[in-house]
UniProtKB/TrEMBL annotation:
Superkingdom to which the source organism belongs: Bacteria
Domain spans labelled Chorismate-utilising enzyme C-terminal: 143-395
Family annotation (Pfam families): Chorismate_bind
Protein name: Metal ABC transporter ATP-binding protein
SUPFAM superfamilies assigned: ADC synthase
Entry's Gene Ontology molecular function annotations: 4-amino-4-deoxychorismate synthase activity; ATP binding
Highest classification ranks of the organism: Bacteria, Bacillati, Actinomycetota, Actinomycetes, Micrococcales
GO BP annotations, alphabetical order: 4-aminobenzoate biosynthetic process; L-tryptophan biosynthetic process
Gene3D superfamilies in alphabetical order: Anthranilate synthase
GO cellular component: cytoplasm
Keywords, sorted A to Z: ATP-binding, Nucleotide-binding
Amino acid sequence: MPRSVPPLALPRWVDPEAVFTHLWAGAPAAFWLDGGVDTDAGWSWMGAGRPEHDTDPLDLVAGLGGGAFHGGWVGWIPYDGDAAWLRVDAALAFDHAARRVWAVGTDATALAALAERALGVGVAAPVPPAEPRGVASGRHRPDEYAGLIAACREHIREGDAYQLCLTTRFTIPGRFFALDVFRRLRRTSSSHHGGFVRIGDTALVSASPERFLEVRDGTVHTHPIKGTRPRAVDPVADAALAEELRTDPKERAENVMIVDLMRNDLSRVCAPSSIGVDRLLEVETYPHVHQLVSEVSGRLRPGTTLRALRDAAFPAGSMTGAPKASAMAILERLEGAPRGIYSGTFGWIGDDGSADLAMVIRSLVVEADAASVGAGGGITWRSVAASEVAEVGIKARAPLAALGAEVPPGW
């Protein structure tokens, strides 16, 4: 395995958007893992790589490093497909809290060249507005989705599941320049785990608010999201929506179910008695929504590989429901088509076994002749169909707008 060299500090801050648009806008294998627009916390990572065909990063022992990316792999694991990874030997790391930039990787000469290129960029050109594309095509009509909600509730009544994360998809035909789509999305929906990853003819564009697995210093952390409310323009009304989310019995029960599921998943690879709930039922606020978020962590057993962790925890319970195996089987029948990259995970895996992987939600998949947006929500016995349908529309609206498209009527 390549060994990282000491990071190379750049003498001054450079704008991440300017750097990426100047250096990698047209690169066929590039990534930008984004900490957010004008954020003063967290990290962003960006660079180019080469498609990985020889090494599977999931074979690494998990969590030996300290949690910073110094070279390794960037890519995605679909909900129901084959993973795609880029091998990355040189990248830029942006520490937003310290306003420092570092060139990191495995080749000192390449890092020096990368730092010089980054320091030479100008300002980012304005992102063009989206070309109007009309109304997206939905996999399901709103009334069909409401019928699937009723089917989910029947399965819950029969005891087949406690919760089911029912999803659908919206598709827009045509060609899109995926980087412009991402730049528009991050302006309207900035998030701490947004990202742009392009591997060949497929690009993932994400404003994900959900960190799936963070692996560092021998521990694993997962941050399930369950529970959503829209934002309001009026501050008083907005605060009331956040409080309604925090106290809603259905949303709290939904979140706690997934917390318990993730505790169970992590127990397969963590030391006995090491699993804890670090945060429970906290409201996080984003540009378009309030979310109910919890955090579960555990100390990994020595020798645990990332593959073993993946097998234990993936797909994330927040995108399946509970119990997981039963929920996945039910959803496969009801949804009627694969989810693909949506509902999977994306991010980085380091040569030292550290990892930071986000959920593929609030995201678009841009391919050669079309783009698609997945959206859904957790169904429980107390779900109200009209509210669940509206939640899908809330989640899909901003990603579709970045494409110049609209949610179909009724959502």
